[in-house]
What does this fold into?
Amino acid sequence: MPETLLHVSKVYKSYGKSAVPSLDGIDFSVEKGEIVGIFGPNGAGKTTLISIMCSILDPTLGSVTYYLDGEKTPREVRSKLGFVPQDFSFFPELTAKQNLNYFGNLYGLKKDDLEQKIDELLQKVGLFHVKNKKVATFSGGMKRRLNLIISLLHNPSILFLDEPTVGVDVQSKIAIMSLLNELNKQGTTIIYTSHHLKEAEEFCNQIILIDHGKIIASETLTNLLNQHTVSNLEELILKLTGTLLRD
It folds into this structure.
């Protein structure tokens, strides 16, 4: 039987005096072990939604409930969440190891456990040999891989990814996606958004499409493609959201 891990219940989010909400009654559940892709045009509300689920933002109305050792709010389960933002979240003037030590200490990890975890993750993403080099000297792909493993130091139960492979070469992309698939097989639930739709088709087992702050489709990709008689995720998004530019 599927096990519900979190539920987003009738979430609304408005900014300032805007008459149009960024999120307008979002409601869905995520099952343990799923890889859920959240997609939609620019300005659809994807980043706002993920920020609320991570407790970076509070909803104007509605709630997010996590079922981890009972019913908990996002703030109560922060230590079990991992968030990989699109923007780099490290100190370029420090080395890779110094960055990982800094964030590991923020997570409250014990020194010996942290040292072991740092070496393990650096090996997995091919950065062990440059662990003592300043991150400012890294290529874009190397920085993107470091950005990912910072969020994995504390073994999160749920991992949120905002464009995890943007701007990387094919080798870095393969390394990142391989690690993410490995984590999912080990039980990590993943919630993901990306503009790399071919990558998303191969990665996600559940798709949520949002536009103008509302969910317009939520199903497995196979079922959605069959329902709307299209052949891929790009065609599905264009069919349901139109071709007008969203700037």
